């Protein structure tokens, strides 16, 4: 038996398979398209705009939650997560904090020898994606950074597991099972090369037999299951080495370098209060309807309009936009 026990919780961001973004009518097919060709005043955070929730995104998010055995909340609210970064034109992300739309689920994974284990899911919440910064074109490093907002406000669910994972193989099995479920119920394509499924791993170690978790490091945005497995294994060795030599683990965010096969410190880990969460209003409510209750689409009062140069589609009512 190892002297130290690995403890892992995974946070998986998954792009919902809608045709339009979470709060506007812009198309979500911006991957590989000309930069900033799928944008409008809403998803670039211009003053005075009102985000309107995409009904299809909510339906897909609910499907994911039900497939993962989660309880749907009667009421959920969106919150502004405030932080300044150039890929976030509003300087806040619309996410969910205190009242996510679903909690308390679980996913069974299959382990070697046919054994099964349930990984509990703490919560799933809905949020919008940020834009993308470009620091190089091909192999050429730029002296400045470019920003592409095509991905801004693309709908995501974040699936947060409980820290029930104890080996890197379990993490791999959990991600594989999660992807299968989400693809099977048609929630997402989970194309990792297009960033449609991304994973952050919270990793800590504790003496075997202990029930008190150690300080965790968060490894951000690992883009393949193999990399998640490798990153967890590296991080276990690194943390055990620090503890063995009498050092202390620092709570921080680390990045996985797949070429050098190491994690590197990125920044000290933010706490929730760093983001100054507060509730925000959109013009729609996401309340699960009971079977048999009327769920008809409201008539659209705002017909889709063209953006100034006809490139960006500006629809104030995504409920009826043909994209959804
Ligand atoms: Zn838009």
Note the main attributes of this structure.
disordered C terminus; alpha+beta; 3 helices; globular; 9-stranded mixed beta sheet; single chain; 3-stranded antiparallel beta sheet; 324 residues; binds zinc ion; 32% strand; 16 strands
Describe the protein's topology.
Elements: E1 4-15, H1 55-67, E2 71-72, E3 78-82, E4 92-95, E5 102-110, E6 116-128, E7 132-137, E8 140-148, E9 155-161, H2 168-184, E10 197-207, E11 217-222, H3 225-244, E12 252-257, E13 262-268, E14 278-280, E15 305-306, E16 313-314
Parallel strand pairs: 11-12
Antiparallel strand pairs: 1-9, 1-10, 2-5, 3-4, 3-14, 5-6, 6-9, 7-8, 10-11, 12-13, 15-16
Helix pairs in contact: 2-3
The site of zinc ion has 7 residues, from loops.
Task: Describe what is shown at a glance.
The chain is an alpha+beta fold and 324 residues long.
